[in-house]
Amino acid sequence: MPPVRASFVLVSLVRVLAGLRPALAAALAVAGLALCAPAHAETGVTDQKILLGQSAAFTGAAAQLGLQLHAGAKAYFDALNAQGGIYGRKIEIIQADDRYEADLAAANTRRLIESDNVFALFGYVGTPTSNAALPIFTQAKVPFFAPFTGAESLRQPFNREIFNIRASYFDETEHLVERLVRTGMQKIAVFYQNDAYGRAGLAGVERAMKAMNVAMVATATVERNSADVAAAVAAILPKKPDVIIQISAYASSAAYIHAMRRSGYTGQFYNVSFVGSQALADALGKDGPGVVISQVVPFPWHAATPVVSEYQKVMARAGLRDWNFSSLEGFIAAKVFTEGLRRAGRDLTREKLIQALESINRNNFDMGGFDVGFSASNHNGSKYVDMTVITKDGRFRD
């Protein structure tokens, strides 16, 4: 019997019996409404769409990070949606601007979960912002996928809701320090952002230098979303380090390089991937050539790498030819998330998504030149780290 007709029959019966047996009438009313209602669906999932939430910097000093990451993910999801989506569902991302500020990220997260009713959180940008969201999505048991940060706080202790695509800051800084020390550059200083991100990167450098038995010559800080670097120049310049490792976003990192060059510093600058490579190169201009940046995704201009070739084609069809590392990371994250949805099946729930993602490994999922793998006890998908350098024309060489 169709649900609506069954409901009509039961409600009519309720009316007949209401005066005689109230308890029975109430029970029959509940049964009738249950027949009318559709089968239970997970929050943020309908027959037509899957709703994701992304809190990131879309304005302010770190805006390019959020804009580029989102652009790559959206290009992939849009291409997928144009082909019918996953099991007929199209993927939609609600954007929430946090300007790279922790308190805004926390407020956005609550709204995305409690008011917007998203299925999962995707592509948050930054350590302080992700840390602010952490207790909220953990309590709500909402998956937190592919944050743009390498902080250990999103890796240890293990959190079943978090899935990391990128390598950790420990992976990146270990790679950087080993490369420097083995090429004879042992006078190392660190310029870092005075927040959870900067301290996470600093801890990685200190850990790597201890393993190499090398002492740090100096450190200096800059406040988040600030370009006031005068004190940092005064702290490090007299120490004459061979190289300065920067753990900050592109605006403050560029300001520091400009100021150090004007002060006569001739050493090298190394950065971790979070800096925002293209944004840093654009901001540096003539001071850019020779600046080194570690990367956690393949080179976006190497079309011989299958996932990069796919990325270039999808971005071009979306009218986006300004390829960069951040949008490639967003694209890869969207591709892996989609594979999780595909494996979770038509009857999608958050629990099924988590189990499906945990089934992805290097032996059963070919990303096309970028290995990703999870397990029930490890949600850190990659340890990939490579090195690039800014060239004279503001581009990159690997």
Description:
This protein is of the alpha/beta class and 398 residues long. The protein folds into 3 domains: 3-36; 49-167 and 303-382, 3-Layer(aba) Sandwich (Rossmann fold), CATH 3.40.50; 169-295, Rossmann fold (3-Layer(aba) Sandwich). Helix content is 44%, strand content 14%. The protein is built from 13 helices and 12 strands. It has helices spanning 3-17, 22-36, 63-82, 102-114, 127-140, 169-182, 196-211, 230-236, 250-262, 277-284, 306-317, 325-344, 350-358, and strands at residues 49-56, 90-97, 120-122, 144-145, 162-163, 188-193, 218-222, 243-247, 268-271, 292-295, 386-390, 396-397. The strands form 2 sheets. Strands 7-6-8-9-10-11-12 form a 7-stranded mixed beta sheet, sandwiched between helices. Strands 2-1-3-4-5 form a 5-stranded parallel beta sheet, with helices on both faces. Helix 3 (63-82) links the parallel strand 1 and strand 2. Helix 9 (250-262) packs parallel to helix 10 (277-284). It is globular, with a radius of gyration of 25 Å. The model is unreliable at 1-40 (pLDDT under 50).
